[in-house]
Amino acid sequence: MDNQEWINQGFDIPKYPEKYLRRRSVAQPVIKRTSTLGELVSQLESIAEIIEIQDLLLTKRKRNKKYSDKVLISKVQSLAHREKLPETTKALGNFLDGWEKALQWTDFEYLVNKWQTVVKSDLDKDRLGVFWALLFLSSENKIELKQQYSLYGPIQIKRIIPDGELAQLPIENLEVSETSSTAA
After folding, report:
1. Contact 128, 79 (CB under 8 A)
2. Nearest C-alpha neighbor of 137 from the set 164, 158, 114
């Protein structure tokens, strides 16, 4: 026997075992053990405890929420279905073109208040509608938007004057100081 001294001679091993070995086409099925009623009950009780704990945590989180999920979903859907947004954007653009104050940095809240006094009743008057329209005007390079100090800081708006167009900046103060000399 060549190089097989380590094999116990009591084993009856064929000379070419690979001829007798065959590969299985699939794995053997997993042996399933039947569960007892006690195990099922204990498993269901542990699942019930976990669900109870999760419900308590969810109710604590819901108390801290400003809106319920249904209210939040309806608010988001109402944003997506603003039907007068193109008309509001066009009207706000025309308003800003004729409004001298828009040539300088103007506060968003001031614009909203001014817009509410001049807008037709069928267009968006609220802050959100005005903001959406301003975003569209900004994407068309008709206005500039900036926010100072932080993410929640006040928003400022300024109209962009197109190339080749002239505009007179508004005069803030018409008073003439006494120190100016006049030739007499």
Report:
1. yes
2. 158
> What is the number of other CB atoms lying within 10 angstroms of the CB of residue 122?
10
**Exposure string over 13-32, b if 16+ CB within 10 A, otherwise e:** eeeeeeeeeeeeeeeeeeee
> Quick one: pLDDT band at residue 1, thresholds 50, 70, 90?
very low
- C-alpha torsion angle, residues 160, 161, 162, 167 (rounded to 10): 170
The closest alpha carbon to 130, from 162, 82, 170, 98, belongs to 82
Q: Domain spanning 83-159 has what CATH number?
A: 1.10.10.580
75-90: b (≥16 Cβ within 10 Å) or e: eeeeeeeeeebeebbe
Q: Report the distance separating Cα 146 and Cα 154, nearest Å.
A: 8
Nearest to 89 by CA among 139, 155, 52: 139
What are 5-64's pLDDT values in tens digits? 777 777 777 778 778 777 777 777 777 777 787 888 888 888 888 888 888 877 766 655
